[in-house]
Amino acid sequence: MKVFRVHQKLISNPLQDISAEVHAQLESQIRTVPSGEVAITVGSRGISNLAQIVRACGDWLRSKGAQPFIVPAMGSHNGATAEGQRAMVESLGITEAAMNMPIRASMEVVEIGKVRTGPVFMDRYCFEAAGVLVLNRIKLHTCFAGPIQSGLTKMMVVGMGKIRSAQTFHSARPAAMKDMLLEMGQFVLDSGKIIGGIGILEDGYDQTAELHALAPGDILRREAELLEHHRSYFPRLPVDDLNVLIVRTIGKTYSGTGMDTNVIGRRGIHDFEDLVTPRIRVIAALELSASSQGNALGVGNADFITQRLRGSIDEHKTLINTLTTGDMDRAKIPATLKDDQTVVQVIGERYGAQRWMFIPNTLHLETLFVTGDLKQELESHRLCSVDPEPVDVTFDAGKLSLAF
Q1: Is the pTM of this model over 0.85?
Q2: What pLDDT is recorded for position 219?
Q3: Domain identity same for 321 and 257
């Protein structure tokens, strides 16, 4: 098979001095900093420059007389254990030595209220602290649509609430999640523990584009505005109809569902309306990122996987995360083939060799490969340029060798 390399012109807007921007934003928006211990939330996503942002937040809090520490805040991820969640943030470069502040990981929580699907909880260390600085990336969610999706409010509700609040939140059907998020988020804000938030926006190249400090009373309103702004950065596939999509790597690093549902057009939620575009007939996933530490939630959105990916799955971690979200179809194991080469061969024999696309993952979409029948279509696309000469789809010991 021959394919053409496509360069997608995404929006690039990298911040030049991240630490200075963190300090400037916090200085302008956060009016009151307690003199005691202040928690900083860190989730499980591979956010660009995360370690630098967290370190700068800690430095600023310390300059105001506070004693900052880090709380791993990630619902049910990495086995829903304190040890697993600490290991997750450390794998992202968030270590005590690098951050110059302690990490306090626990699955213990304190109940702070009740909503119609159950109680609302807060991490014990956050509850006992003098305050909490909430930090997260703001972006589209993979389960539901609404004015607020993945960001500071979800970090307060699911991350700070650990598996207990995650269960309450995910007990709602996806259509009700947008309202549940606001209702549960208000309980957390009403606790008086939140001193403010840092919302991160990334550009189309996964670079830190903007940092926004938000006062507690502004979080729900401003996060909705920032989510709308995020849509202008969000990378997408340049075509709406594909026969085959080959995704080299999936995992929590790239999306909470391994492959971003807004990119592949599949939510994978039983009895809930799916996305309209893109329309993709067959999806294959070739490997699980090492930083996902075995959590393969979302693998069920693929039709084919390799034995290499299947062997990387930690069934316990994946089950715990899937049971918490409640969408069991996302953890179903697809048809499993020997290696990348066999996947490409079998799909080609069964579904033909037209309208194929190869991508490295669903987060980095600046370089991709397409079959020749898509070349002319993408040459006229306003965001794309296509190399004139094709390259062969080759394999090294059965593993895909395309250079993204």
Answers
A1: no
A2: 95
A3: yes
